[in-house]
Amino acid sequence: MSHSGAMNESRRTLSPRARWAVPAVAAVAVGLAFVAPPLFASADDAGLPTVSPEELAAQVASAEPSPLSGTVVYTARLGLPELPFGDVGGANPVALLGGSSTIRVWSDGEERSRVALLGATSEYSVVQDGPEAWTYSSTDDAVVHYSLDPADVARFDELKAQAEAGELAVQGDLPTPEEAGRQAVEMAKLTSTVTLDSQTEVAGRAAYQLVVTPRSDTTLVGRIVVAVDAETSTPLRVQVWSTSDTETPALEIGFTDVSFATPADSVLAFSAPAGASTREVVVPLPDMPAEAATATPDKELPEGVTVTGAGWDTIVQASGLDVAAVVAGDPSAAASLPGVDKTFGSQGAADLYSEFMPEEGSGSPMGDLDTSALYETLTTEVPEGRLLSSALLSVLVTDDGRVLVGAVPGATLQALAAR
């Protein structure tokens, strides 16, 4: 399968800052490298210019997306049980729960990208070209093509033109990069100690090494160290240490080689392997109500969700859940999760939901993966229900339909559940 003629004539992009996408679990890990904590530190090593926390935060916030290609190694040492499933050592997102995985990335810094999660004998790839995307699993020899329908393409182009012309009104004040940097630093200092370690080199690049250490005595997170490229302000590596091991990071993701040259067109173009099956999925472009453009950071929690504690000790609790049914892939159970809009807002969104959720009785939405067995393997039985304990996160599922999640020891969740 090749790009459509329309896309050859005129590529479209959701945003000049559109980035490559990755499988769900990898997305969380990669996202850690781009959130606020990496920005907090001042540089005072002789080899790199001295900057304030606010200045460094502003540099990262205002940096133009860079074309790049490279190899990323992701390693998880979360202390989870060994997974007794066939190809989890291959190019399967579940493999990211433990051990090391290799990810190859390419991006033109604008609208085209490719990511490949590599296994010993398999590959899972995601290719993006503006609003179109393709996934390919070599294990299943299957392609999924995501696109907009013609009406949404026209509306998308109109919104893009309005945005480029500055015609989309936004209510409320948007901070400048400098102001955003100042706010980020102030927020970090509320719960953490922010320092600068010695400058380092990652993938042959000089980088600032920023350290965020929680001031909490009860969180599982010991510290976060992020290396930020001194020239491009691109995060090159993130390491998260657990309080249970001060020698080796529990989670680490970083480039082993990287180039900021624009990748060749042949790398970014998608072409399905001969004989691969192809499934088409039309993704609805959501409506943009007027209130969506209003700057309203404070929102009410979904019904059934409560938050206890603050900062690194925050515990989120959801009630009224049939976790066993959700794990087994029951669509009705998934639709009842807190925060899920049961009306979906549009028929298009409901149709898209149907694409991913199985028919009644047809099993897990994750294909051949036995999610119920995975759940049983990762959790242990406790008086309150079942507990997942890892080096950085605990999850307690109670017998009365509650789920408690926090970067705290499991005993803390059990004590809260017993109240």
Automatic annotation (TrEMBL):
Q: Which InterPro entries does the UniProt entry name for this protein?
A: LolA/LolB/LppX, Sporulation_related
Tell me the domain of life: Bacteria
The record's PANTHER family line, in alphabetical order, gives: SPORULATION PROTEIN YDCC (PTHR37507:SF2)
Question: Which named protein is this?
Answer: Membrane protein
